C-alpha cells in the first residue's frame, strides 16, 4: 500500500556522547563517525520530501498531499489476482486433525 512515511530519530548530542565515555574506543569512534540522527518524510513512491535533519536537533515540518496516495491504491490488487503460481503455493489438508495427542509411554529419565 502506498502511504507517506515519517522517519524520526532521537539526536545523539554532545551531552549524550559524554555519558557514553565508558564505551570502548572502537564503539566510540563508530558513534562519532555516524550521523547523529536521520529524520525525514518519504512520499508514497519512496522519494524524500523536503528537508532531512541529520547533523542538528530540530523540528521538521512537511506539507503532504494525500491525493498522491489515491492513484497507486487503484492499482493495488487487494484480491490477489497478481499471484505468481511459479513461486507461491497453497496447500489445504482436508483430513480432520486432533488438537492434542496423548501417548501412554513414559519417557525414560534423561530423555532417552
Total count of helical runs of at least 4 residues: 3
Class per helix and strand makeup:
alpha+beta
**What's the number of extended β-strand segments?**
3
* Arithmetic mean pLDDT: 79
Shape: flat
Q: Which spans have pLDDT < 50 for at least 5 consecutive residues?
A: none
Strand content: 5-15%
Radius of gyration: 27 Å
Give the helix proportion (percent range): 10-25%
Q: Any chance you could write out the topology, listing elements then pairs?
A:
Layout: E1 5-7, H1 14-19, H2 25-32, E2 39-42, E3 48-53, H3 70-75
Antiparallel strand pairs: 1-2, 2-3
Model description:
There is one protein chain. With 112 residues, the protein is an alpha+beta fold. The chain has one domain (5-100). The chain is built from three helices and three strands. It has helices at residues 14-19, 25-32, 70-75; strands spanning 5-7, 39-42, 48-53. A three-stranded antiparallel β-sheet has the order 1-2-3, with no helix packed on it. A hairpin with a 5-residue loop joins strand 2 and strand 3 (48-53). The model has no long low-confidence stretch (mean pLDDT 79).
Amino acid at each position: 500500500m502506498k502511504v507517506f512515511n515519517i522517519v524520526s530519530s532521537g539526536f545523539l548530542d554532545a551531552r549524550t556522547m559524554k555519558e557514553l565515555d565508558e564505551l570502548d574506543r572502537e564503539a566510540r569512534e563508530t558513534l562519532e563517525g555516524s550521523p547523529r540522527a536521520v529524520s525525514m518524510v518519504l512520499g508514497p513512491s519512496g522519494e524524500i520530501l523536503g528537508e532531512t535533519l541529520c547533523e542538528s536537533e530540530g523540528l521538521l515540518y512537511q506539507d503532504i498531499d494525500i491525493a498522491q496516495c489515491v492513484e497507486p491504491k487503484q492499482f493495488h490488487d487487494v484480491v490477489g489476482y497478481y499471484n505468481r503460481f511459479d513461486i507461491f503455493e497453497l496447500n489445504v489438508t482436508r483430513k480432520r486433525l486432533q488438537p492434542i495427542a496423548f501417548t501412554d509411554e513414559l519417557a525414560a529419565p534423561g530423555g532417552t
